[in-house]
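Putative proline/betaine transporter
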Amino acid sequence: MTSQSSLPDNVAAPPTENAALSRRSVVAAGTGNALEFYDFAVFASLTPVISTLFFPAGNPVAAILSTLALYAVGFVVRPVGAILLGQLADRRGRKFTLFLALTLMGVTTVLVGVMPTYAQVGILAPALLCLARVLQGISVGGEFGTAATYLIEHSPRHKRGLYGSFAVFSSASGSVLGIFVVLMLTISMTQETLSGWGWRLPFLLGFPLLAIGMYLRFRLAESPEFEELKAEGTRAQNPLRTLFREHWRAFLTVLGISVGYQILSATIQGFLLTHIRTVVGMPAVPALTTVLIAALLGLGMVLVVGTVADRIERRTLLLMACGLALVLPLPCMLIISLGGFGPVLIGQIVFWIPLAIFGGVVSAVFADLFPAQVRASGFGIAYGFGVAGFAGTTPFVATLLVDSSGTVLAPAWYVIAAAAVTMVVVATAMRRTT
């Protein structure tokens, strides 16, 4: 098991004359990936509003925790989507599966945008919202692993790190777009208008955006590696059985790396905004602005690391990310707790550094751990369980830790513990390469 490319010798990278087609396919896959994650970012950004609309009035902390628990549902069901759609991608094809995942997300996004609130239908409101989150979680669960697999399989062998980083870049771009839309609404609307009907607009806006993504994906070219599997008749008949019988070590390695990566990612992208608004006490507009600026800078760092990952040992980069995730969370949370636009922004930017290193390298590492026959299943299912077990619960756990301990540093210790686990996994499960 190495951190470098492990393609079989008979699987060639896309030929030079197909480079333009490869780039178009990458853009189409990345665009759909971004639009899928747009909805998740909108939901997270509107957590303080949604908590007052879909749950009974009373304890505001309890309402936020309930909303974050509902947010976690979308993550917890991701392994289901990964199992269903990952196997489909290994049997039927990457293109068909990516189109199906995006279609499911489009329907459920519109449903959230027209959903009645607690004041209108009572307990049915959070129940319907929970159902929508389940369907969205299934969609995204099958999305990321398949999209990353598709991107890696369209990449030249010497650019697998860069192409793989685009999976993280595109999903995070969708998150940035969602934050930006919520920021614009927050600036242009009163709180009463936003709570009355304005919160629906980002979800409804997601539908035409997703329609564009569906059009682009309909025109996708199939992965060249999957086409070769079809031509040779070597597709796995039962990807799930093959995965757990022959590649369980790779599966466990992905889970181990996901502990630190997912908890760090969810802390920064899922927890900090709510924390900055409710605990630090920063108003919505400057809070969203700091998150947006930090995320944009972080996205740039992801692509830089993806490029570097094709030149430097990926194991070294993962260990570097773990090391920074051990030493940076405490000072970052302390700086953010000072309040004020500058400290809050600086704390988030520094926090993004280890996350960007993880994001720039994990897709290539995870994809190369599995052969093409089970790559979408192996990548997607292992990643989905990592997201469900660690990312989806992090905002809830972090908020609960702050509330129960009375210290804003509690989430930092959670991130540090996770980074320590992942450092051990990387150091022991991934061999040093020459």
